[in-house]
Amino acid sequence: MLFEKGSSQSAAQSTADKQPTAGNTAKGLKDYYAAYFPIGTAVSMRSLTGPDAQLIIEQFNSITPENAMKMGPIHPEENRYNWATADSIVSFAQKHGMKVRGHALCWHEQTPRWLFKDSAGNTVSKEVLLNRLKEHITTVVNRYKGKIYAWDVVNEAVDDDNSRLLRNSLWYQICGEDFIIKAFEYAHAADPNAILFYNDYNTERPQKRERIYQLLKKLVDAKVPIHGVGLQAHWSLTEPAENELRMAIEKYSSLGLKIQFTELDISVYPWEKNRRQKLPTDVDTFTPEREQQQLEQYKKVFAIFRDYKNVITGVTCWGISDRYTWLDTYPVAGRKNYPLLFDQDRLPKKAFNAVVTF
Ligand code: GLA
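A: This is the predicted complex of the input protein with alpha-D-galactopyranose.
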């Protein structure tokens, strides 16, 4: 057992029992942050048993299915849902007293083949697509009503191109911006108690921040049932800068929205959107320099999270340990990355220590 269950120890601890040793963190991340916000991780079916499950139980009090509730996996055919993995994840959380963030009801990626087409292969009308969205959201949200406390309702609708507000996805091409409003309305009707989020990446970069703010403001002003904004937090050794992160939190929360960091990882490489190939010159070891810079970045962002604990209602890491991360395959396939707080042996990294020492 890595932490004492029911321990009444507060965040203000003596340094002695904060030092993680091999295979032993005196307490879990969630215990250090008990007075701040839940600490979550993204999970798959595979992580619900064995040593990953053990680490999840010890460290985290919230989980997000990494893929299982996306529309493609959970709703592969128009008249067929695939509940098995999602159900297992929700029961795991219930068994261990964890919160679940649902992810994601409406996104332009990982969509099922049938979604945008009719049986003749033609693109569907706006009316048909909104009906499909309604049926999907109502069914999924309803199934987990009372068990999933928060949903990422719309994911990544704002464009990367600074001259446009919304991404030119099929959702947008067919429905205009109505799909966003409708998605929130359907989710709210299905579970009026669920906390509903708009979720996106690069949320601290000034130009994207302004456009996301513009979208959120429109939704809030129109009284769309949106309660929070998810900042994915796929970050790097150099991004975000402290002032950018603070500004983003202040700006979004000024709309009365809660903030969650929903997919936190700190890549040891700069973001290279257009590179897929590993090059012979790539050094993909976790060098002491990278370890140090990553530790400082983790320390900085968690200190800022603590500063804004009155508006931050959750921080979720996008994975459990460096043994598995989506960043090993994306954007550069086959380049090992080390973005999380536990190493490939599932032991706490120095960055872990930096995050729990305050
Ligand atoms: C986005 C999505 C996540 C996940 C990551 C990559 O951030 O919101 O669900 O797919 O990309 O793992």
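The first strand starts at residue 39 and ends at 43. Residues 1-23 have pLDDT under 50 and may be disordered.
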